[in-house]
Amino acid sequence: MSKENPLTEIYRDQWLLAVHKPAGLLVHRSPIDKHETEFALQYARALNGGEHVYPVHRLDRPTSGLLLFARDPQTASRLGKALMAGNVQKTYQAVVRGWTPEQGLIDHPLTDEPEYRRLKSEPQAERAARTRYRRLAITEIPVAIEGHPTSRYSLIELYPETGRKHQLRRHMKHISHPIIGDANHGRGRHNRYFAQRFGQGRLMLAATELVFPHPVTGETLHLQAAREDSFVQVLSIFSN
C-alpha cells in the first residue's frame, strides 16, 4: 500500500465514516481481482486510526465518488437493513452516448454476469432492478465516430432503486445509452475517442450523493461528494 491515502474524508461521527473513492480503486478483495493489493477498506481503516470499518454498500472499481463505512458492526447492520428497505437514496452522475429522454424509469430485471456465475454453484435467477434517471445537459460535437458526421452525448443523474451488480452500467446499455468509458457494456469507438482526447479512459460514472436517516440519531443525513478532476475534465464537451 502506498504511503499517500487516496481517500478524501467527507463526513465522520461516532458511528459513520464517509469518503470519496477515486476511480480505479477496489473497495475490498475480490475473487475476480485476486492480484490486487490495495483496497479502499484498508485506506478507510487507516483514516479510522487503524480500527476496523465496515463497508455498507459497493462502488465498482472504475466508479468514483461517495463511499460510506460504518465504524462498528451494529451500525453496519442497521445501515444494511436500511439499504434493503430502500431507505437510502443514492445519486450518481454519468456521461452517456446519445441524447437520452429528459427523464425516465428503467425497469429491467438482471441476472449475474458470466464472470460471477462461474463463482457460484447454481445459476442465479433474474432479480428485479429499477433505475430512474434525469437528463442534466446534452451536447453534439463535430466528430465522426460511428459513421455520422457528429456525435451526441448526455450528462445525466441516476437514482438506483435497487442495488444489483453493475446495475447502472447494464441499464444504460439496455436503453442504448451506454456510459462512456465502460469497457464491458459500452461502445469501443466512443471509449477510445475519449481516452485519446482527454489522456485517460476512465468510466464516466460518479457517486455524488447519499440521503438516509442516521442509523443511531434518526436525523436525515445528506452527504455529497465533489466529482474528481478526471470526471470534470470530460464535462468540457458540454460547453461547446
Annotation keywords:
single chain, 240 residues, alpha+beta, Pseudouridine synthase, 10-stranded mixed beta sheet, 6 helices, 10 strands, globular
* CA-based shape: globular
Give a short account of the largest sheet. Answer: 10 strands, mixed
Total DSSP helices: 6
Strand content: 25-35%
- Uncertain segments: none
CATH class: Alpha Beta
**End-to-end distance:** 41 Å
What is the CATH homology-level superfamily?
Pseudouridine synthase
Gyration radius, to the nearest Å? 18 Å
Secondary-structure arrangement, i.e. CATH architecture: 2-Layer Sandwich
Number of strands: 10
Structural class: alpha+beta
Give a description of the structure.
This protein is an alpha+beta fold. 20% of the residues lie in helices and 29% in strands. Strands 1, 2, 3, 4, 5, 6, 7, 8, 9 and 10 form a 10-stranded mixed β-sheet that branches. The mean pLDDT is 91.
The gist of it:
The protein is α+β, with helices and mostly antiparallel strands and 240 residues long.
List the helices and strands and how they pair.
Layout: E1 8-12, E2 16-21, H1 40-47, E3 54-55, E4 64-70, H2 73-84, E5 89-97, E6 103-107, H3 114-117, E7 130-141, E8 151-160, H4 167-174, H5 188-198, E9 205-213, E10 220-224, H6 229-234
Parallel strand pairs: 4-9
Antiparallel strand pairs: 1-2, 2-4, 3-4, 5-8, 5-9, 6-7, 7-8, 9-10
